[in-house]
Amino acid sequence: MRKLGLAAAVTYSSDAAAYHRYTESRVKDLIAELKSADLVVGYNVLEFDYPVLSAYSDECFDELATVDMMQHLAERLGFRPSLESVATATLGVRKSADGLQAVRWYRQGRIDKVLDYCEQDVLITKELHEFGRYHHLVYYWDRQYQRQVVVVNW
Fold first, then answer.
1. What is the pLDDT of residues 83-124, one digit of tens each?
2. Three-state DSSP class for 91?
3. Which region, left, alpha or beta, applies to residue 85 given φ > 0 means left and ψ of -120 to 50 means alpha?
4. Mean predicted lDDT score pLDDT of the chain
5. Residue 15's pLDDT band (cuts 50, 70, 90)
6. CB burial of residue 141 (10 Å; 0-12, 13-18, 19+)
């Protein structure tokens, strides 16, 4: 993951009620924002985002107050449900694209499309976290495409 490099990143600051967009040239600003947050909420942030960012900093990202919703769900379910599965079952919303499409846009130099994709993922993650905090549960689709519930304590 450390060798992957940062193509694009988007955060949402609840204090500022604003999205912030980053590319590799501003990775230090991204890390500073994460370090200043009271809580970082993400989906697969511990196994993807933090390892990617570790190539740019000696910071110990494990020390950041973090809720990784995927990790939380995987511990309860015994498998890692996709953000798409949880978002469609819980919120009735689909992702705008997938990671492979984002890679194609990046290779085409369409960083604006990659940032839009990331921002929509952040919006879904934010809404999913809020739903789980309020209702203490989220839904996901099982292998038979049956909607299932899982209790959460975010």
1. 999 999 999 999 888 877 888 998 999 999 999 999 999 999
2. helix
3. alpha
4. 94
5. very high
6. middle
- Both tokens of 46, joined, read 């511990």
Size (the chain), residues: 154
**Phi, psi of 93, deg, nearest 5:** -120, 145
* Locus of tokens 């000696």: 58
Query: Average pLDDT of 14-25?
Result: 96
The model scores a pTM over 0.85:
yes
In the prediction, which pLDDT does 38 show? Answer: 96
Task: Please give the Cα distance from 1 to 64 (Å, whole number).
Answer: 19
CB neighbour list of residue 37: distance below 8 Å, 6 or more residues apart: 13, 64, 65
Two structure tokens written together for 82: 């996709």
140: which strand partners?
A: 148
Mean pLDDT within 59-67: 93
CB contact set of 78 (below 8 Å; sequence gap of 6+): none
Beta bridge pairs of residue 104: none
Helices marked H in 4-96: 27-36, 50-53, 69-77, 83-91
CB 141 within 8 A of CB 85: yes
